[in-house]
Amino acid sequence: MLQVTNIREHKDAYINALSKRGIDAKAILEEVLTADDHRRATQTKLDEILSQSNTFSKEIGMLFKNGEAQKANLLKEKTGQLKEQSKDLQEELNKTVEQLQELLYTVPNIPHHLVPAGTDENDNEEVFSEGEIPKLGDDALPHWELAKKYDLIDFELGVKITGAGFPVYKGKGARLQRALISYFLDKNTAAGYTEYQVPHLVNEASAYGTGQLPDKEGQMYHVTGDDLYLIPTAEVPVTNMFRGDLVMHNQLPITCTGYTPCFRREAGSYGAHVRGLNRLHQFDKVEIVRVEHPDNSYAALDGMVDHIKEILRDLKLPYRILRLCGGDLGFTAALTYDFEVFSTAQDRWLEISSASNFETFQANRLKLRFKDKDGKNHLAHTLNGSALALPRVLAGILENYQTPNGIKIPEVLVPYCGFDMID
Prior knowledge:
Blueprint: H1 4-9, H2 11-18, H3 26-65, H4 69-105, E1 125-130, H5 143-149, E2 153-154, H6 155-161, E3 168-169, H7 171-190, E4 194-195, E5 201-203, H8 204-209, E6 222-223, E7 228-230, H9 235-240, E8 246-248, E9 254-263, E10 282-292, H10 297-315, E11 319-323, E12 335-343, E13 348-359, H11 361-366, E14 369-371, E15 377-379, E16 381-389, H12 390-400, E17 402-403, E18 406-408, H13 414-417, E19 421-422
Parallel strand pairs: 4-9, 8-14
Antiparallel strand pairs: 1-11, 2-3, 5-7, 6-7, 9-10, 10-16, 11-12, 12-13, 13-16, 14-15, 17-18, 18-19
Helix pairs in contact: 3-4, 5-12
């Protein structure tokens, strides 16, 4: 969430920056400032009345002490009137604060200056690529056919149990899935991230804290009986561990990793690009989260990008990195890099990770602050990245490592899964 003081100081610059998202933000930002002006004016009136009421209360006591009961009673009447006015003003103030908060919730984060203007994924900028795309024979199969051929994943059984988008992993498919999770966590902890196991459901405050509400309300599964939400990513519970915290500057950075299943209601369209593991309602992901000093957050983002690169090099999968344009940038992000692995059998790129810097946007919602060397409090910067999302990584391995004799296992995963071939 943006800070009103920053909107007031940088309104024109914010309007220009938000145009990269394809948004004309002038009207909403002016509405925010008008609401804040009303809030401040109401607060001033309330403070004046409360101050006058306190003054009268002291005078009443002195008047009674001095035997001037008539004057004291007149002041008591005025004090009663002031209390009624203060009650009305407090109600108006509460309503104005709530309206201002609701307005701020509708304004996305300000894009970083590196974010290119653009309307959709076609305008994203490729900034890096690595790895050779393997040459497969004409009989190469997409991963959903390989999963069926080698009895690794049963998509129909998932439909029977729950519905489309909830696959059942079997045998070596399940073991490979577990191997990927363990490998990702080991890589992350070796890089200095502390591992956490977190709840898979969160309350409304947590969903607002990281920006899933109200922006993505329809994309989350809502447990209405308990007013809880199934998490769309481990970013939500992990980042909310620090909601409302004030940390010391020497505690930064705070680095976390965690594995969770993820749940997303977003409906997929029909076609090969959403078949198999390409888009699911439930999937596994290992996440990395950082809480950083503002001076260090973009160096930290570069470090996260390098860390994800190293994982993909270990897996020997061909990949590329995109800098997302304004129209494809997430609501809460200031700058995002997407990683895509090349699916040779499908002849297309599949997103398998994103690394984002939210600057103070989430921290302002979370009230997550740090105390600097001079004892002053500031909002921290938060970052997160997938390291990695499993479905499309698994799809890439199955497709890119297929041979006429079976599917090879990336060398780095063999110690984790206990076999080097699926045949």
